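During the reporting period the student researcher (J.K.) took over the structure-prediction task from the postdoctoral fellow and processed the backlog of single-chain submissions. One of the processed entries is reproduced below for the supervisory committee.
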Amino acid sequence: MLKRTASQGELNGFLDAGSHIRGELHFEDTFRIDGKLTGKISSEGDLVIGEKGEVDGEIDVRRVFVSGTVQGTLRAAERLEITSTGRVTADLHAPTLIIESGAYFQGTSSMGAEGREAVASQSDSATSGAAVASLAVGPKAVEA
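J.K. obtained the following structure tokens:
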């Protein structure tokens, strides 16, 4: 996955396993998290959350690839991908959403042209043309 994003820009940051940061993270190009971050992440670049990575908070980036654990809100301007090892409990907002077999996702999903714009409610989304769904995907999936 990192090879896929590295072609778009250079890896200019890394939070290694065993590290924990609380606060705000801003970066350019591509950043990888294998440790734990609690807070807000914003960038016009790509975020890679490795298998041991954990994020609890708000993410607002161009593209995000999740192989670890995320709780909170994710906004991707272009693409959001949850790999087979990813565990996401969050509200998702992205024009392109990919959830691989074996991944776990519980929360809401909003896919529309607005990309980064937050969706205030399901009724607001329906009037703006965005598709909204409440989903649970994983071994204990609940009917949506």
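The committee noted the following: The longest helix spans residues 122-128.
J.K. will present the remaining backlog at the next meeting.
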